[in-house]
Design goal:
Elements (H helix, E strand, L loop, with lengths): L1 H14 L4 H8 L3 H23 L4 H33 L5 H11 L9
Helix pairs in contact: 3-4
Length: 115
């Protein structure tokens, strides 16, 4: 029986995606590093294109591609964090906005005080 369990565990290990940890590690890189890498890669592409073709302005096309990739990285990170925020906002523990709206409905008048 123990041999069967070991075989099941071995087959599960074989079927686990091996690239997933790499993707998760790359995803957890800081935003600053990913921006720098994107720009450096764009500069490298531009340098390569300029050397291959001899056209000088292709270097600046590569730089523009790198900057666009860096901006895209910022947008993706923002979108991901916003989704996490939306999920937290749905939880009753963090639903402060709803609590404030309910409390403000109970108050009748903020005007003149009647003693």
């Amino acid at each position: 029986m123990a041999d069967a369990e070991n075989k099941v565990e071995e087959t599960e290990e074989e079927h686990k995606p091996r690239i997933k940890p790499i993707i998760e590690a790359a995803d957890s890189l800081s935003l600053g590093i990913s921006m720098v890498v994107a720009v450096v890669m764009g500069v490298g592409i531009g340098y390569l294109l300029r050397n291959l073709t001899g056209i000088g302005w292709l270097f600046w096309v590569g730089v523009a591609i790198g900057i666009a990739a860096a901006i895209l990285n910022v947008y993706k990170a923002y979108s991901k964090q916003y989704k996490v925020f939306e999920e937290l906002a749905k939880q009753p523990r963090y639903a402060i906005k709803k609590q404030l709206e309910e409390d403000s409905d109970d108050d009748e008048d903020y005007g003149e005080k009647k003693y």
